[in-house]
Write a structure and sequence with these properties.
Elements: H1 2-14, H2 20-31, H3 36-42, H4 49-89, H5 107-120, E1 125-126, E2 132-134, H6 135-138, E3 158-159, E4 162-167, H7 172-181, E5 186-195, E6 207-217, H8 222-237, E7 243-250, E8 253-262, E9 279-288, H9 290-295, E10 304-311, H10 312-320, H11 333-336
Parallel strand pairs: 1-5
Antiparallel strand pairs: 2-4, 3-4, 5-6, 6-10, 7-8, 8-9, 9-10
Helix pairs in contact: 1-4, 2-4, 5-10
Length: about 350
């Protein structure tokens, strides 16, 4: 009996359990009602009286050992279970969460919105037209005569087999669409995508954006054009911006002028951006040619108007000092994320 107690104690000490099943095996083998502990207890009655006391003591110690071992195995398996479940999921729940990146508005969208909001405050609405245009709206109604060299000012993407259809080369086509539908007073702004068959380089792209402006009413004068664009330049580029008008030519305006602003980088002293001239060009403009008004069903004897057109990429490049137009379409997050702080 004493040897048996000793052996059983050794066996209990050595027992290892790695799973719930092995823990159950321990319980069944040693401490359940039919386990070895109960059966050895049953043998106490066979021990001679003078040894009973000693045997009882040893059996109590064995019982205590078996109980403690059982608790130890339970603790061990609980711990193994909880650490293995987080390992399987591959998650360390104690780590702080990683922050997620907010997107940013594309600089072209931001500049377009800013231009719109400046003109909306002085009574302009926004109008839209198709990117696939016919010859009438892109050229003829705008006073480009057939085969006139002025058509070559803009390299056009024509639709094969139908020379009447082209991708619009400018948003001036929307002027025509608005005037055909609406009698003056008209004050409208038309932002949109335009297409030109040009080689892509740091300075030019075959797809870019323009904003067209049109104001037609009784007694609209060149002074209104000057004042309107002066207001725009100051709002867009700062209070101290100066504006100058250079005579130019467009088939749809007479007289025509190109609009320059004083370089806001060097304040007119001369730098790389203004090519050391102190001025940068921002738009084409002029008084709507009377032929264009009558082409669109507006009486040029009664109404006059001014129009202007500017490239959004160009304005954005000046404003943010971007030196390569291709960056706008390359979707490089390192470029785009720099505009996160612009709220428009
Ligand atoms: N459509 C011209 C271009 O794409 C820009 C322009 C010039 C628009 C003069 C106008 C204007 O409305 O009056 O180069």
């Amino acid at each position: 009996m004493f040897d048996k107690v000793k052996n059983l104690a050794e066996e209990i000490k050595k027992f290892r359990a790695q799973s719930q099943e092995e823990l159950e095996q321990y319980r069944l083998k040693f401490i359940s009602k039919k386990g070895e502990l109960s059966s050895i207890m049953g043998e106490l009655k066979n021990v001679p009286n003078e040894k009973k006391r000693e045997a009882g003591q040893q059996l109590n110690e064995l019982k205590q050992l078996a109980k403690e071992k059982f608790q130890e195995l339970i603790n061990y398996i609980d711990q193994a279970d909880s650490s293995s479940s987080t390992q399987t999921a591959g998650i360390d729940l104690t780590l702080p969460p990683s922050s997620f990146e907010l997107g940013s508005m594309h600089p072209i969208t931001a500049v377009r919105n800013e231009i719109i909001s400046i003109f909306e405050k002085i009574g302009f609405n926004v109008s839209d037209g198709p990117e696939i245009e016919d010859d009438w709206h892109n050229f003829s109604a705008l006073n480009f005569p057939p085969n006139h060299p002025a058509r070559e000012m803009q390299d056009t993407f024509f639709i094969e087999k139908n020379p009447d259809i082209a991708l619009r080369t400018h948003t001036s086509s929307v002027q025509v669409r608005v005037m055909e539908k609406q009698q003056p007073p008209i004050r409208t702004l038309s932002p949109g995508r335009v297409f030109r068959n040009e080689a892509i380089s740091a300075r030019s792209h075959c797809i870019f954006h323009q904003v067209e402006g049109l104001y037609v009413d009784k007694n609209v004068s060149f002074l209104d054009l000057k004042q309107t664009l002066y207001h725009f330049a100051k709002e867009m580029f700062g209070k101290n911006t100066k504006v100058r008008y250079r005579p130019s030519y467009f088939p749809f305006t007479e007289p025509s002028a190109e609009i320059d602003i004083s370089c806001f980088i060097c304040n007119g002293d001369g730098c790389n951006i203004c090519k050391h001239s102190g001025w940068v060009e921002i738009a084409g403009s002029g008084m709507v040619d009377p032929n264009v008004l009558s082409n669109c069903g507006i009486d040029p004897e009664e109404y006059t108007g001014f129009a202007f057109g500017m490239g959004i990429e160009r304005i954005a490049m000046l404003k943010f000092q971007i030196t390569d137009i291709r960056l706008f379409t390359e979707n490089d997050v390192r470029f785009l994320s720099q505009f996160r702080r612009i709220n428009h």
